[in-house]
Amino acid sequence: MAFELSIIVPTYNERDNIVPLFDAICHALTNINWELIFVDDDSPDGTNIVVKNLASQDHRVKCIHRLNRRGLSSACIEGIMASSSPLICVMDADFQHDEKLIPEMYAKILNEKLDVVVASRYFDIGSTGGLPKFRKTISRLATKISLISLNVNITDPMSGFFMIRRTFFEKVMYRVSGRGFKILLDLLMSSDQLVKTAELPYVMRSRKSGESKLDFIVVWDFLIMLLSKMIGEYLPYRFISFIAVGSSGLFVHMLALWSMHDVSNLNFTLSQSIATFVAMTTNYILNNFFTYHDLKRTGNLFWRGLLSFYLVCMIGAILNVSLATELYQRQLPWFLAGVFGALAGAIWNFTISSMFVWKNNRRK
Ligand code: GDD
Ligand code: MN
After folding, report:
1. What is the pTM for the complete model shown?
2. How many whole angstroms from 127 Cα to the centroid of ligand 2?
3. Into how many domains does the chain fold?
4. Which of 53, 59, 76, 230 is 20 to 30 A from 240, alpha carbon to alpha carbon?
């Protein structure tokens, strides 16, 4: 018999939660014909071994084992793509999401002919019970920001626990960014039609075993995602992040220049050169942390990356200055010549450094 519901569970270091989650789902979903797809990014704790072992005993369980990749959203998307039932449920592996709510979500999405049912922590009796305090604050703040840019009326667009109809997914799948943690928000924001949604309240439990992978970087990811949806989808996410970091670099540059030239009384050329190096260095560190956090260079690779980043930026600067000079000589106003030069330099720096500095280096 065909599956009626595909449950997608992204996993990273969730070894000890796999079997208990499977048992809990067996217990909670007795009247639905479901499959359970784990999408594991080659967790170092060997989660995939536990999943594959379970899969060999029960045909409803599958393991998508991804190599050289990280990311909750993209994992969910691949799980959805690999499944085929008309309804899809996404949830965490760590018991924070109450599996006993799934039958209710299932009935609701069918009876009310909805696209999406969200398990909400903020609606009615729902609660963020199991979350640490600072996470609650961040979560509420992010929810407020995202509601401004969203035209669906739900209280918890950041929820990681929801059910969708495949027909809805197939309408939006070409536009989802697949980055970061906010898969639901990503799906909702990618729709150009009104999405039929409803919510069910639940109390979030605390994680059963292992630790959360959400950290500060998630907030950055989220802001860049909002920005990229606002600017339009033609600019790659990383480029926006790169430009944001670059703008902070300008500030660092001016600060360094001021302290060399005005405070320490060094000559201008030397001050400008030092400031350039300081700004390149902070740009590298910030890009390594934010823009390329999934390909972050550490240890020895960090230093080698820094050297190649200097080299790339140096060529970028030459390109920038020569193009701007050329345009200026062709009678373009100084500010336009300047902007075009800087833009060309930034595009060069971005393209070349993503090819050579942060090429996929997870395996080394
Ligand atoms: N495949 C894969 N790859 N899975 C991942 C990755 C990854 O890079 N990072 C995290 N996961 C898995 C975890 O193993 C877990 O099953 C699930 O994704 C959620 O990760 P957690 O680390 O448990 O996140 P959280 O509990 O802090 O955040 C949850 O709640 C948020 C709402 O506060 C998630 O559901 C978020 O999506 C949600 O926004
Ligand atoms: Mn969790």
Report:
1. 0.73
2. 14
3. 2
4. 76
- Mutating to test ligand 1, I would choose from 81, 183, 213 the residue with most ligand atoms within 8 A of its C-beta, which is 213
Give me the amino acid identity at 207.
R
pLDDT tens digits in sequence order for the chain, 364 residues long: 799 999 999 999 999 999 999 999 999 999 999 999 999 999 999 999 999 999 999 999 999 999 988 889 999 999 999 999 999 999 999 999 999 999 999 999 999 999 999 999 876 566 666 667 777 777 777 777 777 667 677 888 888 999 999 999 999 999 888 877 789 988 998 888 889 999 999 888 877 777 666 666 777 777 777 777 777 666 777 888 999 999 998 889 889 988 988 888 888 888 888 888 899 999 999 999 999 988 889 899 999 999 999 999 999 988 888 888 898 899 888 888 888 888 888 889 998 998 889 985 544 3
Last residue of a domain, one of 211, 229, 256: 211
| Cβ atoms of 222 and 139 closer than 8 Å | no
Does residue 219 lie in a domain region? Answer: no
247 token code pair: 């703008």
Tell me which ligand sits closest to the C-alpha of residue 68: 1
One domain, residues 189 and 252: no
Q: In what order do the strands lie in the sheet with 162-165?
A: 61-65, 34-40, 5-11, 87-90, 162-165, 116-120, 197-201
The residue whose CA is least distant from atom 35 of ligand 1 is 160
Kindly give the number of the ligand 1 atom that is closest to the alpha carbon of 135. Answer: 33
Tokens representing 3 are 């599956």
